[in-house]
Design a protein that fits this description.
Number of strands of chain A: 10
Number of helices of chain B: 28
Number of domains of chain A: 1
Distance between the termini of chain A: 60 Å
Strand order of the largest sheet of chain B: 14-26-25-24-15-22-23
Oligomer: heterodimer
Number of domains of chain B: 6
Number of helices of chain A: 1
Structural class of chain A: alpha/beta
């Protein structure tokens, strides 16, 4: 009986590990192509999380935070030298003019939430 | 066509979006309308001649919503107010949760429970006390976890929410259905003290962290606070006080003693002494008179003057400094990459480790295995601290760049700050960097009497140099001015870069320049050499004048060394950094100046376009090289160096080729910038070692690796205390940088 408990707990544990891995680490963010401006809602992460923007052109990114989590109160676009406070329920616009192609991640102030800017 | 964004009030769903879009599109003059539900905005492209803002608002109102114009820029005050509000809310939650947790502990902790009133020992009372802590004080953890789950993301709050919910949930089970746990041989003991105290302690840590974090951006706040609010502008002969944003370029502004100079400009009338320390870090007030530049937000000390505004708004020096510092604080240091990579995977890995801990303890742990498994898994979730890793680098960069700005050292980005600490060689350009850049004529020597008296030599040289823009030419012309020498007409003037000048006076071919020019012209200077050598040994730059292929005289010019040059170089030598001087001067002159300053290595007779190559040669020796120059003539060399350091000029602070700009124009700041970089990097490394070490050591301890050897386990309560301390200590360590002397 006791051994059966162990088998069940082990099996559930293994399943939980696989599920955790799949749920958090195997997600694929849908890429949204943007030309002039994009609205990103900040609520438990960034929506849309992955945006693609054109090279050499200025794109306005409008962040709008509805999530009170302290972590998300700042957004950092390190490659573009931008660190901005995102006050709750207010639109904050940042402008980026990428000079080279590639993938440029952005994150919250503590690096917990992530998004990506793909320059094409 | 004009494009505007309006705020919209009253939207609830996607159909509202369609209704408003249609209403706007049907308004004559509107070509395009896009409504965004998330941001509650409408972006409208319209012809302002046909349709006004008000007409658009009424179109929106007609379908039952409200449109209005909202200030887009978020004011600093609003940000501050929100931060204060959040901090006050956090404080309420801390006091509430810790007070109730204390009562629960009093009623449940072995030893203490004898002191507690009887009702506190009742587990139903403990349930009543723990519930609001879990769901009101701990609400921020759930609020962060649930939307994050929707994005398949997890953060610090996820761990706390899972951990405390597990402890609280089990305790509720034990309280409501004790028979279930009893049936599997476990004593029905709740853990409300764990869930409540963990929440209280983590919130307390977060409160201290938020307060400390506010201190990291103090320098930029101070800079923003320097901005003047009003200006006394003279318009139509009357003095009127205007808000600063209404001042335009060309406005005449009057400033009285003790007042703040509102914007950048040029003095038209009057003189005074101005304290610029708050903006440039230059400690001694400077005298200003008609024609001089004044910097906005600095303090006028003694006199009254009128000046013309030359830069306003975002163009002022202070606005540029603020922008530069903000950009630096937003940039990422290369050292942060590893922390970023780890933090992206950290939380899911901790959840996996917690599950693993539960299974291992359940399968192999002592009796009651379930309780060991539960408490240890909770401890793993609680002790993990990804925040400390995320905070380690940016907080130090923010304090470091802010500290630099306070001292007149502007650092372009975090990468420059990181690179500067590895610098082993500092190359100084001589003219304008080590010297004031305003040379004066010290000797006029006639050779063999062919040019007549010294005055004639000056006359010929000054006439020729009149057309040149070189700083040495300026010295000769102003000497001639001073001595009221009449200048002659010059034909076919030509400047030969790195050599000198040539032209025709009275149909005679005149050349003036260095020895290289004489060699090129095949002019014999043998008999002038002893005089020339002795002048050069005094550190003077000697120019040779020849008329129709014959040597006629020498003119020696000397530049004054900057007051801070000697101390600045000494400071670098003390740091065991090799100092190199690069100059177009010949070896002897360069050596004489180098000797006065105690410079190790001199690169003389370097033409302006060779400076970059010299910097690269030094880099090829395997050393990290910093180049200090004026940022204009030395731009290629500054860009080629590992760290380009430019001396500030006028009111332009953002020198493109430079990684660091010294707006205080003080050469001691070169050593100060390197020291600041070293101290900042030391802080970052310490933070990272602490943040990584903490997790690497304590997560296995929480998993119970020490139990088989020492019987040691980590209670979730201690785990929460350690976790709360962890991020606070990282931020506090960064704040210590403020006290560092540079």
């Amino acid at each position: 009986m006791e051994n059966l408990d162990k088998v069940i707990v082990t099996a559930f544990g293994a399943l939980a590990i696989v599920l955790t891995y799949w749920f958090f680490l195997m997600k694929r963010g849908r890429e949204v192509a943007v030309s002039d401006s994009v609205d990103i809602t900040v609520n438990g992460g960034y929506s849309p999380e992955v945006i693609s923007i054109p090279q050499g052109k200025t794109t306005k990114i409008n962040f709008f935070r509805t999530d009170p989590t302290d972590c998300l109160s700042e957004v950092v676009l390190g490659d573009f030298k931008i660190r901005k406070e995102l006050p709750l329920n207010q639109k904050v616009t940042v402008e980026v003019t990428p000079q080279r192609r590639g993938e440029f991640p952005y994150s919250c102030g503590m690096g917990m939430y992530h998004g990506k800017i793909v320059v094409r | 066509m004009e494009k505007k964004i309006f705020q919209i009030k009253g939207m609830h769903c996607a159909s509202c979006v369609r209704v408003i879009e249609n209403a706007l599109k049907n308004t004559p003059g509107v070509s395009e309308a896009n409504v965004n539900l998330a941001t509650e905005t409408a972006t409208v492209t319209f012809d302002p001649k046909t349709v006004s803002d008000e007409k658009l608002f009424s179109s929106v109102a007609n379908v039952g919503y409200q449109a209005y114009v909202k200030e887009q820029a978020v004011s600093e005050d609003a940000e501050e107010a929100e931060k204060k509000k959040n901090l006050a809310d956090l404080k309420r939650r801390v006091v509430f949760s810790l007070s109730l947790a204390a009562l629960i502990i009093l009623g449940s902790f072995p030893g203490l429970e004898n002191l507690a009133p009887g009702f506190l020992k009742n587990i139903w009372v403990q349930l009543i006390l723990a519930t609001p802590v879990q769901f009101w004080a701990g609400l921020p953890f759930y609020k962060a976890t649930i939307p994050a789950f929707r994005h398949r993301t997890a953060n610090m709050d996820t761990l706390i929410a899972i951990g405390t919910t597990a402890a609280y949930g089990y305790s509720v089970l034990v309280t409501v259905f004790p028979q279930i746990v009893e049936s599997v041989g476990i004593a029905p003991m709740p853990y409300f003290d764990v869930s409540a105290l963990v929440i209280g302690l983590i919130l307390l840590g977060r409160y201290f962290e938020a307060r400390a974090k506010a201190g990291t951006s103090e320098a930029i706040k101070k800079l923003i606070g320097l901005q003047a609010k009003t200006a006394r502008v003279v318009r139509d002969g009357k003095e009127i006080d205007l808000p600063i944003d209404q001042v335009v370029i060309g406005d005449m502004i009057r400033v009285r003693p003790g007042e703040k100079i509102p914007v950048d400009g040029e003095i038209l009338e009057g003189d005074s002494s101005v304290d610029e320390s708050m903006v440039t870090g230059e400690s001694i007030p400077g005298d200003k008179t008609s024609g001089d530049t004044v910097i906005g937000s600095t303090i006028n000390k003694t006199g009254t003057f009128t000046y013309k505004a030359t830069k306003v708004g975002s163009e002022t020096m202070l606005a540029q400094i603020i922008k530069l510092v903000q950009e630096a604080q937003g940039s990422k240091a290369p050292i942060q990459r590893l922390a970023d990579l780890i933090s992206a995977y950290f939380v899911p890995i901790v959840i996996i480790l917690a599950i693993l801990t539960f299974v291992i303890w359940f399968d192999f742990g002592p009796v009651p295995a379930f309780l060991f498994a539960l408490l240890n898994a909770v401890a793993v979730l609680i002790i993990a601290c990804p925040c400390a890793m995320g905070l380690a680098t940016p907080t130090a960069i923010m304090v470091g760049t802010g500290k630099g700005a306070e001292h007149g050292i502007l650092i372009k980005d975090a990468e420059s700050l990181e690179t500067a600490h590895k610098v082993k060689v500092v190359v100084f350009d001589k003219t304008g960097t080590l010297t004031v850049g305003k040379p004066v004529v010290t000797d006029v020597v006639s050779v063999k009497g062919e040019g007549g008296r010294g005055e004639n030599i000056l006359q010929i040289a000054a006439s020729l140099e009149k057309g040149s823009e070189h700083s040495l030419a300026e010295a000769i012309v102003s000497k001639a001015d001073e001595e009221k020498v009449k200048l002659e007409k010059v034909d076919k003037f030509k400047a030969i870069p790195g050599h000198g000048v040539e032209g025709f006076i009275d149909k005679k071919r005149v050349v003036l320049g260095n020895q290289r020019l004489m060699e090129r012209e095949k002019i014999d200077i043998t008999h002038a050499r002893p005089g020339l050598v002795s002048l050069e040994e005094e550190g003077k730059t000697v120019m040779i004048l020849a008329v129709d292929g014959k040597l006629v005289g020498l003119i020696a010019v000397m530049d004054t060394l900057k007051e801070s040059a000697k101390e600045g170089i000494e400071a670098l030598r003390k740091m065991k950094i090799e100092v190199v001087m690069i100059t177009g001067d010949n070896q002897r002159t360069a050596k004489a100046i180098g000797g006065q300053l105690g410079i190790d290595r001199i690169l003389a007779e370097v033409l302006p376009d060779q400076k970059e190559a010299e910097v690269r040669k030094l880099q090829n020796e395997g050393k990290m090289v910093a180049m200090v120059g004026d940022g204009i003539n030395d731009a290629p060399a500054l860009a080629a160096a590992d760290v380009g350091i430019a001396m500030g000029t006028g009111t332009d602070v953002a020198i493109e080729a430079a990684d660091i700009t010294l707006i205080n124009k003080d050469l001691r700041s070169v050593a100060a910038a390197i020291t600041l970089s070293k101290k900042t990097m030391r802080t970052i490394k310490l933070n990272l070692v602490w943040a990584f070490g903490y997790n690497v050591v304590l997560i296995p301890v929480a998993m119970g690796v020490l139990y088989p050897f020492f019987g040691l386990l980590l209670s979730p309560i201690f785990a929460s205390a350690a976790m709360a301390l962890s991020s606070v200590s990282v931020v506090s360590n960064s704040l210590l940088l403020k006290r560092v002397k540079i």
